């Protein structure tokens, strides 16, 4: 649909549905003794009310996450305007996000995500374990649009910023036990132990397991089962009133697959591989028809040294270290299907990353000029041992090493031109280097060969570097405490990489690099708190122009019967639309909310694949960009019902998430990759005791058990079926 029509429809619909009842709403506001919760965020790298910043940010507090059933990072796709996402094809612990049309389904270590994930201000470089388990989390912020100034790595789509809870000054503990569909069991626990007012600690952990729900018609096993557990130890040391040291160590394990399914019977698939058992390498197990699984094991350490100078100056020295191991065996084509002897991948990848940031914020010029500046550095090294296997034959066996070193300097200035008008100017300079190397392991039986020397001989560069400056400018007008109007222009880019999987005949030309993609995004809108702060309404329009789009093209290498999928900087795109976020407390204890995203996406130009390979199903300007529905939205409510005699309360709530029609394949083929419009329903009911010492709740996701496709690679991949859970929570202090 034409973008202008959507904007007009959004504006009319917005005021027709929300503006019409203003008179009655004003009457209702008089009956309401509470106001909407103020949400503090760090989207501009300093603490601010989310309603006071000229940015598109969806923020969710702990209570909001509970009422919307956000229990893992992937659940955000139901709650954020213009965010579409899914588990990657194969691993269930890896999320692919598409925000305002920009995303990436490739999880190999030579691809960087266009939607970055951060935990406590530390960048998580790999998509392999970004389906973060929500346990002991203070809030989540989703920044919509390019992050080219203040956040660690440049991204074109946006950022998911997860903030964990810090140790409390009061002793307290919480324990939660759950049971649900598919024999699901969960345990969450946390305890705050302050030794004194200067030395605070927190310990938290979780465990989840569930049986599978997709039966293999070959092995009879139930696939799609889950096992996940982890823990975090956090320390807050406050030796003086001006110095704070927060440090945390986290360990997490996750084992979950997202296998293809049969189109006619989505609760079955045709994999002939069995689950992992016994000993031996991944390749040994794959050759023996077992080893099916996807396991991630992560150690994550964050240190944040904070120094306060005067009333406004704050210096932070943030260090992050992440060690992640990812092992999987995934079946993509069962033996005998599609006319080939099957196709599976075994993968053992280890990632080590170190990030370091020095950040300074403060004010000068009689507090009219606020600044945020800093230095950022990341050093990442990946070692991937992976094999492509057809039937029992090892097509290609290789080890890949690749690394990234990136340094950036950033500065943002916010100048209060008047008491109501503020101008913002910012920029980030990034200098980045990447390298790659291969070593063939044909001693283990591989047929084809690829090595660093062969890449160099074939003219494929094994190093690449980029230096870019990404500016930003904005203006905001705040005529009152309850209204903010703003407009901005933001530049960002996403790093380049290599087509590291190869394919076809595995010649050097199949491992070509691709460069960065770049975006300019323009936004204008307002944020408002209405009716004595019982209603919140945010509205914006965005227009993004992207060049050097990293597009996947299907090409046929000369002399090869197999299609090779390569990512190239072969397109330019335009993504534009509107986003609405609305909350209302019409009476005490009742909260209504609606988030809507409207989008019109198109490729404005597409460069054909280079001479030699032949395009199979080319992407053209008539192709609809993948995962760009014209509308996404969620509407729901939460109602707390006080019980006069006991002092406790019942809580009921529910929401309906809507996604318009869209394609989940880059070239709009095959036909099953066209996804019809879909509704997903969630509901909950619970009771909380008067002293809030205990509570019990029942929840369901996808309550109507909808069958819906989320991805396509030769076969369809589906979202989860109906699940329900009952949990009991206990609190101690």
Which short descriptors sum up this protein?
6% helix, Maltoporin, Chain A, disordered N terminus, globular, 733 residues
Write the layout of secondary structure elements.
Layout: H1 3-19, H2 22-30, E1 40-41, E2 48-49, E3 57-61, H3 62-67, E4 83-87, E5 90-91, E6 95-99, E7 102-103, E8 115-119, E9 122-124, E10 137-144, E11 158-164, E12 172-180, E13 184-196, E14 199-210, E15 214-216, E16 222-223, E17 226-240, E18 243-258, E19 268-269, H4 282-287, E20 293-309, E21 313-333, E22 343-364, E23 369-390, E24 393-416, E25 421-440, H5 452-457, E26 463-480, E27 483-494, E28 497-498, E29 513-514, E30 517-530, E31 535-556, E32 564-584, E33 590-606, E34 614-615, E35 631-642, E36 649-659, E37 662-663, E38 674-675, E39 678-688, E40 694-701, E41 709-713, E42 715-718, E43 723-732
Parallel strand pairs: 8-11, 15-19
Antiparallel strand pairs: 1-2, 3-10, 4-6, 5-18, 6-7, 8-9, 10-11, 12-13, 12-43, 13-14, 14-17, 15-16, 17-18, 18-20, 20-21, 21-22, 22-23, 23-24, 24-25, 25-26, 26-27, 27-30, 28-29, 30-31, 31-32, 31-34, 32-33, 33-35, 35-36, 36-39, 37-38, 39-40, 40-43, 41-42
Brief synopsis:
The chain is mainly β and 733 residues long. It is built from 5 helices and 43 strands. It has a 22-stranded antiparallel beta barrel. The chain has a 5-stranded mixed beta sheet with strand order 3-10-11-8-9. A 3-stranded antiparallel beta sheet has the order 4-6-7, with no helix packed on it.
């Amino acid at each position: 649909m034409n973008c202008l029509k959507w904007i007009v429809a959004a504006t009319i619909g917005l005021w027709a549905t929300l503006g019409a009842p203003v008179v009655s709403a004003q009457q209702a506001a008089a009956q309401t003794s509470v106001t909407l919760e103020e949400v503090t965020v760090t989207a501009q790298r300093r603490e601010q009310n989310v309603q006071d910043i000229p940015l598109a940010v969806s923020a969710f507090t702990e209570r909001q996450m509970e009422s919307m059933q956000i229990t893992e990072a992937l659940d955000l796709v139901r709650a954020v305007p213009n965010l579409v996402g899914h588990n990657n094809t194969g691993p269930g612990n890896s999320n692919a996000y598409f925000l305002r049309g920009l995303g990436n389904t490739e999880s190999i270590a030579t691809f960087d995500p266009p939607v970055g994930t951060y935990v406590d201000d530390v960048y998580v470089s790999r998509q392999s374990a970004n389906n973060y388990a929500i346990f002991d989390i203070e809030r989540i912020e989703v920044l919509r649009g390019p992050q080219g100034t203040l956040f660690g790595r440049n991204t074109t789509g946006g950022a998911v910023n997860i903030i964990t809870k810090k140790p409390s000054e009061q002793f307290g503990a919480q324990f939660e036990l759950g049971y649900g569909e598919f024999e699901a069991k969960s345990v969450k626990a946390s305890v705050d132990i302050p030794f004194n007012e200067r030395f605070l600690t927190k310990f938290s952990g979780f465990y989840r397991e569930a049986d599978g729900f997709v039966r293999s018609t070959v092995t009879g096993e139930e696939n799609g089962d889950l096992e996940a557990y982890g823990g975090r130890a956090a320390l807050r040391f406050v030796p003086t009133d001006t110095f704070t040291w927060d440090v945390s160590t986290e360990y997490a394990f996750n084992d979950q697959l997202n296998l293809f399914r049969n189109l006619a019977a989505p609760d079955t698939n045709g994999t002939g591989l069995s689950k992992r058992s016994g000993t031996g390498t991944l390749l040994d197990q794959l050759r023996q028809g077992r080893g099916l699984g996807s396991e991630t094991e992560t150690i994550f350490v964050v240190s944040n040294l904070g120094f306060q100078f005067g009333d406004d100056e704050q210096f932070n020295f943030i260090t992050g270290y992440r060690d992640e191991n990812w092992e999987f065996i995934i079946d993509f084509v069962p033996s005998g299907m599609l006319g080939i002897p099957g196709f599976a991948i075994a993968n053992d990848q280890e990632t080590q990353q170190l990030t370091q940031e020095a950040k300074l914020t403060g004010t000068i010029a009689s507090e009219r000029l606020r600044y945020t500046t800093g230095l950022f550095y990341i050093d990442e090294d990946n070692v991937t041992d992976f094999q492509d296997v057809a039937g029992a034959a090892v097509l290609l066996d290789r080890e890949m090493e690749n690394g990234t070193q990136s340094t950036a300097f950033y500065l943002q200035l916010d100048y209060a031109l008047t008491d109501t008008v503020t101008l913002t100017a910012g920029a980030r300079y990034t200098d980045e280097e990447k390298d790659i190397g291969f070593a063939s392991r044909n001693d283990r039986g591989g047929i084809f060969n690829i090595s660093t020397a062969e890449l160099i001989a074939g003219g494929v560069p094994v190093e690449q570097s980029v230096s870019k400056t990404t500016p930003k400018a904005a203006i905001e007008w705040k005529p009152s405490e309850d209204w903010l109007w703003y407009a901005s222009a933001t530049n960002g880019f996403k790093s380049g990489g290599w087509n590291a999987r190869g394919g076809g005949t595995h010649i050097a030309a199949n491992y070509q690099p691709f460069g960065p993609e770049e975006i300019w995004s323009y936004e204008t809108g307002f944020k408002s708190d209405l009716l004595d702060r019982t209603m919140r309404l945010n509205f914006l329009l965005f227009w993004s122009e992207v060049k050097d789009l990293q597009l996947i093209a299907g090409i046929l290498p000369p002399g090869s019967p197999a299609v090779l999928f390569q990512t190239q900087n072969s397109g330019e795109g335009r993504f534009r639309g509107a986003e609405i976020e609305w909350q209302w407390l019409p009476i005490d204890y009742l909260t209504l909310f609606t988030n809507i995203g409207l989008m019109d996406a198109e490729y404005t130009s597409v460069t054909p694949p280079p001479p030699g390979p032949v395009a199979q199903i080319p992407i053209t300007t008539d192709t609809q960009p993948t995962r760009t529905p014209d509308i996404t939205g969620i509407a729901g409510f939460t109602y707390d019902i006080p019980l006069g005699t006991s002092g406790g309360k019942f809580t009921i709530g529910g929401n309906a998430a809507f996604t318009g029609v869209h394609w989940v394949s880059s070239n709009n083929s095959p036909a099953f990759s066209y996804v019809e419009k879909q509704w997903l329903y969630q509901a909950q009911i619970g009771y909380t005791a008067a002293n809030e010492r205990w509570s019990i709740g029942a929840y369901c996701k996808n309550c109507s058990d909808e069958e819906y496709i989320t991805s396509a690679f030769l076969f369809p991949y589906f979202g989860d079926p109906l699940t329900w859970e009952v949990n009991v929570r206990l609190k101690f202090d």
